[in-house]
């Protein structure tokens, strides 16, 4: 290191240590080990290999080798999922045991979570096949279902959501959140693992989509880039604290289409079955079924740049 | 692996294999090898090194070593491009040969594609120099053209589009799509490789930009974050299937500026030469040349929070 | 390499070399070495380890080992920061010395920058603790402050901004810009390092947020996805060149909330203390304190899809 720095190293170190002492919220010292974000991201890719055999692996799958491939992948995912779930359960973030001096109970519970998750793979596969079909049917630019699985960011985000939502239900919300934020980073779609999403869901383009924690979405819903399903305001208790657990985000019924940059807010807001919402709209009240919402034509003003 | 899982491994494997059989859309077993997304992403970086010598390589280029550098880079890109293009041509996604029992024809065609692509490098360089200049002229925060090439995400997205568009025209749409989706992930700009974009094009900030497959953009066009050039509705044939091949996305003529989050939809929509479109507008009809489109001022309501 | 290509290699090489000669804006030959984007991204992660001990490292920190950990991390960061800052100072992009035939002065200045930056770590930590608290208070879905530090993309973007803003002030704008564009790519939040941001700042979801170079933001401001603080037009001098150095972006006073996709433009635009701005609004004039801005209700048109 350079000389100037060397001579000040002791002083700098002490100043930083003092700031660790004075601000405990932003340090973890003498604390449980956090899960590894990198390992959890690898888990997503391993699970995708299991969900879509032959798409993401570097070997050709055949009728003969597929059973071996699945068995070994299951073993690998089971081990990694158990390890990381145990770290999630033990860590302070969402503590479920008392300090975890003995990590045994966390590990036992984590193994059960891994087993339960893997048993749900066939049903997740079934839902994702419907989602891929919905994307193919909904996008004239789509050349094949394989292209959707291989390339479409909206489909990637939905895949990770279907995985993360199950992990949340199985009791590892931190792992679910790490996965959904990774998908957010990769695709620009921010889907909270808690959102409940029906069958045949399609997000086109996807960047800027936000789907809040308590959103409820029906079947055959189609969403374009920049759509927000958000909270309007947060009901507070008599001490001014936000009341948790209420529905803060909208309900979207079956067969709704939300075009680019529509913003829909509020836990009481219900977009009825079959509604079409135009782009760049801002909606905070319910819309009755089978209607079209669009801005008034006179909203725009067109004037010439030419001097008269 | 943990004991619980081991004892159930056989049962889990069988359940998952059964789901592979019952849902063929989401598996590739006994099927041609897919191209490697990772290798195609590396190709983008190799091509950028060729396009912008001295910017992204880890050695200093001089008049003396540059010829050797270019020759060896060309050889490397030629090999990788041929390999991946052959996988694209052979794979089911966009099959061009009959099952590819003999991969020879695919490989021969891929080598020709690689050669044709590399011959276009000088003309791609010419276009990108104009794009970089347009970014410098259009952004007061820009310190130099080098900063734009090195840092600007919008320029990165345009660079990948200029590459992907040529590869699409040369017959490898899957490779083009993988590249454009990578740029989408890295920058938030979703430009379909099919879009036709004129000279001196500048995307500022870029996150949330969507430019659809059949968009046509003139020269000296400037686009800000969140702008969508999208489809309004999809004309269907008598059997209810979307008719492919029609222009579904807008035409933007020369010297147009589209501010943040403008949404412009429809294959019949033409934004005339010299038009300026304000932010957060929603346009589904043509705008005549040399005009300004903006929301009416009275659209906003401002009320005091203070009790009267 | 394939034969077709080999036979043409010489011709291709010459054509590309000729295009390097004819278009100097997009090449760096016989020029100073650029900093390494990859190394600067690693620096961000090393600095985050220093800022948030125990969150991102792969070992458990204890009262006993933390001093050693900090000392060795400081040494590592000091070396890497000095090296990359020297490259930034030497490179053409923001040249501060004359050709840098002797890199000594650049390296000496870079070492001073590294030392000054590290001395600011405790104060950056203090600000980030307030930002994390603001995120926890502002988001009902947040389970703990640790979850925010570990998972929230908006908090990541603010962390990188607090680092990059100091580096800009210390005289390495190119390093600052590379860091902020990396955060932009990872989170969809494009915060220019020059923006001045007060205490307890919270960006929720974050994708599509753009905060321009000359924005000024007060304390306790909350911003949602898709919000733009942008420039309206660029005042030009008598020769038609954009005048640099003026405030082109808005001022946001204390305790303002800006909902999703609000677009606020112009250097003269001041959003007064305590204002709430609804989503999808487009604002180019100042708003007085303690008011609410929202679209008129009649803006939307709802019509039935059913035939009468």
Structure description:
The structure is a homotrimer of 308-residue chains. The first copy, chain A, is an alpha/beta fold and 308 residues long. Chain A folds into 2 domains: 32-186, serine acetyltransferase, domain 1; 208-295, UDP N-Acetylglucosamine Acyltransferase, domain 1. Helices cover 43% and strands 13% of the residues of chain A. The radius of gyration of chain A is 24 Å and the shape is globular. The termini of chain A are far apart. The mean pLDDT of chain A is 88. Chains in contact: A-B, A-C, B-C. At the A-B interface, helix 3, helix 4, helix 5, helix 6 and strand 15 of A face helix 1, helix 8, strand 13 and strand 14 of B.
| Low-confidence runs of chain A | none
Class of secondary structure makeup of chain A:
alpha/beta
Helix content of chain A: 40-55%
> Biggest sheet of chain A: strands, sense, closure?
5 strands, parallel
**Head-to-tail CA distance between termini of chain A:** 68 Å
Sketch the topology of chain A as an H/E string, one letter per element: HHHHHHHHEEEEEEEEEEEEEEE
- Give the percentage of residues in beta strands of chain A: 5-15%
Give me the side-by-side strand order of the main sheet of chain A.
1-4-7-10-13
CATH class of the largest domain in chain A: Mainly Alpha
Q: Hey, which two chains have the biggest interface?
A: A-B, 74 and 76 residues
Mean pLDDT across all amino acids of chain A: 88
| Spatial shape of chain A | globular
Mind telling me which CATH architecture of the largest domain in chain A this is? Orthogonal Bundle
Q: What is the oligomeric state here? A: homotrimer
Helical run tally of chain A: 8
CATH topology of the largest domain in chain A: serine acetyltransferase, domain 1
Give the C-alpha Rg of chain A: 24 Å
**Number of separate structural domains of chain A:** 2
Q: So, the CATH homologous superfamily of the largest domain in chain A?
A: serine acetyltransferase, domain 1
